[in-house]
Specification:
- The longest helix has 24 residues.
- 30% of the residues lie in helices and 27% in strands.
- The model has no long low-confidence stretch (mean pLDDT 92).
- The strands form 4 sheets. Strands 1, 2, 8, 9, 10, 11, 17 and 18 form an 8-stranded mixed beta sheet that branches.
- It contains 16 helices and 26 strands.
- 45% of the residues are buried.
Length: 531
């Protein structure tokens, strides 16, 4: 007997568990399996960014994840003498959350898995191994340990860097493996007063030192050629590594020490038939930008709404194929950033290290460069040009990028993040206008293809008259922009209406008078039939 689900997810780490929560939110019947019987106890990822928190917000779990996290943590680069070369502390919350936050992965995974209990249509099978996978034009059949078979419309492979699904599909992982290994040491009872993440560019032995929640600290030390990885994990060698950084390494409580090899690799394709790769199954990167897990969360945030639309008969399979086109270029950009930061950190030739230090100090003297570094503008921001978007003039930024998330106030006086008003699916947003004004019946039918929430945003303290003005859609939600952030955003683009996708990226940007043709074209590409 073969069980039937709409989506099967292989891997219940943070990426897979996030995908299951998204699909649960969208009402999709889902099975998620993992070979491990429980959450892996040791922390791996420690950084969670604003885009990931926005996804956790979408599934109602951001606040719970943040209860055990440290928000708004600076990142600093130091030279061998301990002088600060760069201080990165972005305070802007463009997407509603701080950009750099430190957490413990096992605790966040536990939150995500508990979140799945809310959905009777999501089944979790732990301690279950995938044995075989085969697909045809109509779906995918998974054979699990114990001879259980599951038939799914789509499969998401979030089963890590050694992905069995990727291997069974024969998809190569292109790129390189870095020759130097690193020993990672997690300690309890943090002995230092250094509430930030520090990359120490010391040619004698480059290392990273990070303050973690619950009075913990992580060190990461580069290993040199000839140093045996297993030998470096011996207690006396671990204490020797810590000796130069704490007053008495003998009193430091080492929770665990592990050796890691870093990779800069990307799958040749992110989708094969009805199977999608996500997270480490699709890409591997060094940890220096703190973007490995976050990039995987971006993957499933992009992917899950598309699958949901297809299995709910709102869209056709062509939408699934946009996943690779939208996500793969940005994943490669994040790999490149992480690799570059590693090259800044790791030189062991003193002459090269001195040249690097001189360059960073000189660059920091330029106000524009200093601001670029301080505000973390070097981090690649996804920009989907070839996918489910309606391009506009290249000189007009916005389409294919994540929509901003300011605070808004409802007519009842409640202040919320914008996404809590937009809802989990599509939204049509008009600034100081009824976004559907002037649309004919056929164009309104095209809008209904997306089943959107219609939102009108007005300036703060605009007065009740603006709330009471009738709108084309009687269910239009009217809110005020608390900090008046959206007027300059819309003015800079010369538009006043946006169609926001479920992943919060702008699918189309236009004026209220030109919305009709734009939304009609997008509905045709979506594959839905106007009702």
């Amino acid at each position: 007997m073969t069980d039937r689900v709409q989506v099967a997810i292989v891997g219940a780490g943070p990426v897979g568990a996030t995908a299951a929560n998204l699909l649960g939110t969208y009402g999709v019947t889902t099975l998620i399996i993992d070979r491990e019987p429980g959450v892996v106890a040791y922390p791996r990822a420690i950084g969670v960014d604003d885009e990931t928190l926005r996804t956790f917000q979408a599934v109602g779990l951001a606040d719970e994840v943040l209860r055990s996290a440290i928000q708004n943590v600076p990142l600093k680069f130091f030279d061998a003498a301990g002088h600060c070369l760069a201080d990165i502390r972005p305070t802007a919350q463009d997407y509603g959350w701080y950009k750099r936050n430190i957490f413990l992965q096992p605790e966040a995974e536990a939150v995500l898995r508990r979140g799945l209990r809310r959905f009777p249509h999501v089944e979790v099978m732990l301690g279950t191994e995938l044995r075989r996978i085969r697909q045809d034009a109509d779906g995918v059949t998974l054979t699990l340990a114990g001879a259980r078979e599951v038939r799914a419309d789509y499969v998401i492979a979030a089963d890590g860097g050694r992905s069995s699904v990727r291997g069974l599909l024969g998809i190569p992982l292109e790129g390189s493996t870095h020759p130097r290994k690193w020993v990672v040491i997690d300690c309890a009872h943090d002995p230092l007063d250094a509430p930030y993440t520090a990359l120490h560019c010391d040619p004698r032995r480059p290392y990273v030192c990070a303050h973690l929640p619950d009075d913990r600290r992580r060190w990461e030390f580069m290993l040199f050629p000839g140093e045996d990885a297993d030998e470096m994990l011996a207690p006396d060698r671990v204490r020797d590594l810590l000796r130069h950084h704490v007053a008495d390494p003998g009193v430091v409580e080492v929770v665990r020490a592990r050796v890691y090899t870093h990779h800069s690799r990307i799958a040749a394709r992110f989708a094969d038939g009805r199977i999608a790769l996500a997270g480490d199954a699709a890409h591997l990167m060094p940890p220096w930008a703190g973007q490995g897990m976050n990039t995987g969360i971006r993957d499933v945030t992009n992917l899950c709404w598309k699958i949901a639309a297809i299995v709910r008969d709102q869209a056709d399979h062509a939408l699934f194929r946009t996943y690779d086109r939208e996500r793969r270029p940005h994943a490669r950009a994040m790999i490149d950033l992480s690799t570059t930061l590693g090259r800044i950190l790791s030189p062991t030739r003193r002459s090269l290290a001195r040249a690097r230090d001189w360059f960073l100090r000189a660059a920091s003297l330029a106000p524009a460069v200093k601001r670029w570094v301080l505000e973390m503008r070097f981090k690649p921001v996804p920009h989907y040009r070839d996918g489910f978007v309606v391009p506009v003039d290249p000189g007009v930024p916005g389409v294919g990028r994540m929509f901003v998330q300011p605070r808004v106030e409802t007519v009842m006086g409640d202040q919320l993040r914008l996404d809590d008003v937009l809802g989990p699916w599509f939204a049509v947003v008009g600034f100081e206008c009824d976004p559907l004004a002037g649309l004919g019946d056929a164009e309104l039918a095209a809008v209904r293809v997306f089943r959107p929430r219609v939102v009108k945003i007005v300036e703060s303290r605009a007065g009740r008259r603006h709330h009471r003005q009738p709108c084309t859609d009687r269910d239009t939600v009217v809110v005020e922009d608390v900090h008046n952030q959206l007027r300059p955003w819309f003015q800079a683009r010369g538009r006043n209406v946006v169609l926001v996708r479920p992943d919060r990226y702008v699918a189309a940007m236009t004026t209220v008078g030109a919305l009709g043709p734009v939304v009609t074209d997008l509905a045709r590409r979506f594959g839905g039939a106007p009702r």
